[in-house]
């Protein structure tokens, strides 16, 4: 730690004297830990491309859904379907342009 920060940085996040740190810590509200506070969309697990395709969802819609709502990259989707990344990008863009994205 450089000499500038020595004695000034408190608890790694506060720049101020001990009284200032105590006031801030006393005024803070603890973060909620209840799972009901987390939106349902963030609690749910994203569906996989394979699951959507097995359930009869059209390929273009499945790619769009997994890319926009899941955590899959275009590279991973391209590898899964043996397509190029640019092809996956074009399929997703075409699906969005068709206006069908509201149906997913």
Produce the secondary structure layout.
Elements: E1 9-10, E2 14-15, H1 18-27, H2 40-43, H3 49-54, H4 59-69, H5 74-81, H6 85-97
Antiparallel strand pairs: 1-2
Describe this structure in words.
The chain has a two-stranded antiparallel sheet. Strand 1 (9-10) and strand 2 (14-15) form a beta hairpin. 50% of the residues lie in helices and 4% in strands. It has helices at residues 18-27, 40-43, 49-54, 59-69, 74-81, 85-97; strands at 9-10, 14-15. The chain has 104 residues and is mainly alpha-helical. The chain contains six helices and two strands; from the N terminus they run E-E-H-H-H-H-H-H. It folds into two domains: 1-30, no CATH class; 40-103, no CATH class.
Overall 3D shape: elongated
Helix content: 40-55%
Biggest sheet character: 2 strands, antiparallel
Beta-strand proportion: under 5%
- Could you tell me the number of beta strands? 2
For the record, the count of structural domains works out to 2
**Computed CA radius of gyration, to the nearest angstrom:** 24 Å
SSE succession: EEHHHHHH
Give the low-confidence spans. Answer: none
End-to-end distance:
52 Å
| Number of H/I helices | 6
* Mean pLDDT over the full residue set: 79
Order of strands, widest sheet: 1-2
The SS-based structural class is: mainly alpha
């Amino acid at each position: 730690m450089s000499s500038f920060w020595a004695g000034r940085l408190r608890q790694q996040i506060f720049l101020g004297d001990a009284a200032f740190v105590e006031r801030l810590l006393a005024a803070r509200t603890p973060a909620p830990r209840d799972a009901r506070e987390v939106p349902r969309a963030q609690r749910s697990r994203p569906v996989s491309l394979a699951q959507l395709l097995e359930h009869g969802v059209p390929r273009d819609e499945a790619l769009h859904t997994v890319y926009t709502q899941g955590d899959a990259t275009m590279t991973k989707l391209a590898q899964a379907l043996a397509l190029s990344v640019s092809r996956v990008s074009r399929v997703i863009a075409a699906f969005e342009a068709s206006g069908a994205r509201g149906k997913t």
